[in-house]
Amino acid sequence: MKISTKSIVFRTVLIYIFLTVFNVTVLNLMIFVNQTSLIVDNAKLSSQHRGSSLRYRIETIINSSGDLSEININKILKESSALGITDISIFDESGKAFVDVQNGQTTSKTQADDKELKMINMAITKRDFEEKLFYHDVNRATNSIDLFIPFTFQNDKIAVASAKITMRDISTAMGSLYRQCLIVALIIIAIHLGFAWLLSKMILLPLRKLNEATNSIAQGKLDVRIPIVRDDEIGRLASSFNEMSVALQRMRDEAKGASPLTGLPGNITIARYIDECLDQGRFIAVLYADLDNFKAYNDKYGFTKGDEAILYSRDCLLSVAKRKDMKNVFVGHEGGDDFVVVCEYEFWESFAKNFITTFDRGIYQFYNSVDARNGYIESVNRRGERQRLPLMSVSVAIVTNKIRPFKRHAEMIQIAAEVKKYVKSIDGSCYAIDRRTGAAAPGQAAVQPAAVPAHAAPRPAAPGPAGQPPPGPQPVAGTAQPRPRQPGS
């Protein structure tokens, strides 16, 4: 994917690279300066120890005879060699060389150069005024220290021994320091890469998904959703975006005559389809499915979760409709939590049972762990009283033209309202079919539930007075068992 130089991703990467290089440079520079000083100080300390030892041996040799004779000079060279010093020169205070040895070999040097003469004078001055045993000069180019050790011979004469001590440990220590700096740099880069990955995952990638989803919506793909579930600003932005896309899809689907939420055929299409089936003389069953306790759920969990429950109901209906043992099943959505299914008469009971089983199996996912475990939700009614309401269930009212004749869909709706009123009076997920015969008269009053023969799978209802069974028909044996009714429901 091509990244624009004006994009947030590009600018963030540049800033992050700069910060990484800056942090690596500053931290390594601090470590390098500090460790280099320690290495040099340790080398100086070691050299000073050897210098002090050399001075002590020179004084011991001179004090024995007081003269800087050739014999004493050879003794001094021997002692310096024993200390591992291979480069040594002995000068008088004017810079005249008594002896000059380089790499263990005597040279013909007779006079100190300007730099050596300056160091000789500094060593004598330091001894006389600061009581320093010797003066040293660090040569970083050769990783060595030049020691200038003043001493007295023949009572009042001053000589200076110049010894070069190689700091053998510096190269090893500097190599270790370079490795240490490299490891620190790699650790910093790894930490920055980790933070970059987190930044990309938490901010940049969600923003990219939002941008891609926006482009998809601009192309008319209103079913795009952003799969971001987080309780922060990005998550709320994604949620708002999804709700916006749902609203846009609803508006488009309304123009098509479909249910704005589920995308299923709406009222007009449902009515037209039922009338077509009746006109064709087909024996059909019309199943009116309605969610129980949906309002209580919607009030507690919000309309977005309520929409998810409605979509879940739609998916349950469609999954049953697609079963191999089902044929020519029409699924529509009247609106809210009301669905309509039109199928061949022979499939109605199998469809109702499978739908209820599928619905009840997965409805717990829409509740938090406490409500799901309790089997009910607690809420406060309009009088301020706390009450317990059962979890959502489904009631299915079935009307068919196999048993009684119908001419138009309006007649079926009238009878379905009666059956629906009865089936919703039974606790739990259940279904009931109207088995009355005879044509439905216009304006016919709704019959009492007890007069409606039914096949249902209810939850056990609260007992009637004096322990009598509840009014209305009893469930048919062999139907699916309902969820038990919760206390206070």
Keyword list:
Alpha-Beta Plaits; alpha+beta; disordered C terminus; 489 residues; 13 strands; six-stranded antiparallel β-sheet; Beta-Lactamase
List the helices and strands and how they pair.
Blueprint (H helix, E strand, L loop, with lengths): L7 H58 L4 H13 L4 E6 L4 E6 L2 E2 L7 H17 L4 E5 L4 E10 L3 E10 L1 H51 L14 H24 L10 H13 L4 E9 L1 H8 L1 H19 L8 E6 L2 E7 L3 H15 L6 H6 L1 E5 L5 E5 L2 E8 L8 H15 L6 E4 L56
Parallel strand pairs: 12-13
Antiparallel strand pairs: 1-2, 1-6, 2-3, 4-5, 5-6, 7-9, 7-12, 8-9, 10-11
Helix pairs in contact: 1-2, 1-4, 4-5, 7-8, 8-9
Condensed summary:
With 489 residues, this protein is of the alpha+beta class.
How would you sum up this structure, described in words?
It contains eleven helices and 13 strands. It folds into three domains: 8-171, 2-Layer Sandwich (Beta-Lactamase); 222-256; 262-467, Reverse transcriptase/Diguanylate cyclase domain (Alpha-Beta Plaits), CATH 3.30.70. It has 489 residues and is of the alpha+beta class. A six-stranded antiparallel sheet has the order 3-2-1-6-5-4, with helices on both faces. The radius of gyration is 49 Å and the shape is rod-shaped. A hairpin with a 2-residue loop joins strand 8 and strand 9 (338-344). Helix 1 packs antiparallel against helix 4 (168-218), helix 7 (294-301) crosses helix 8 and helix 8 (303-321) packs across helix 9 (348-362). The longest helix is centred in the N-terminal third of the chain and has 58 residues, at 8-65. The model is unreliable at 445-489 (pLDDT under 50).
